[in-house]
Structures are given as structure tokens and as C-alpha cells.
């Protein structure tokens, strides 16, 4: 049976790239993330970072589809 922890990247070597992506998305929406624990963020701040990440992933996918 597979690991049920959804917080682990499928490709373990992608962890650093995902962290960089998260930091870039946080900077774009004005959230001050730090390395390590960020439990002091509000739900709104955390949601805006996640939302920005999803928005950028969808945009990248659409751009890739348009190029085919």
C-alpha cells in the first residue's frame, strides 16, 4: 500500500524546486514565508499562497497546451 501522506512529493528530488516555487508564489502575493515552520500564518495568507501556486500551475499547463 502506498504512503497516505499527501504532503510528500511524488518525485522526492522535486522537493527543493517545489519549495522555491512556493517561496516565489508567496512573494508574489505579499506573504512573508520563512524556511521551516510557518504555523504563524493566517488561513487567508496560507490560502493565498496555495491559490497562487495553483493559478501558476494551470497557466503553465495552458501555455504548454497552446504550444502543441
TrEMBL record:
Keywords noted in UniProt: Sporulation
Function: SASP are bound to spore DNA. They are double-stranded DNA-binding proteins that cause DNA to change to an a-like conformation. They protect the DNA backbone from chemical and enzymatic cleavage and are thus involved in dormant spore's high resistance to UV light.
Stated name of the protein: Alpha/beta-type small acid-soluble spore protein
InterPro entries: SASP_alpha/beta-type, SASP_DNA-binding, SASP_sf_alpha/beta
Taxonomy, superkingdom: Bacteria
Gene Ontology molecular function terms on file: double-stranded DNA binding
Gene source species: Candidatus Flavonifractor intestinigallinarum
Pfam families: SASP
BP terms from Gene Ontology: DNA topological change; sporulation resulting in formation of a cellular spore
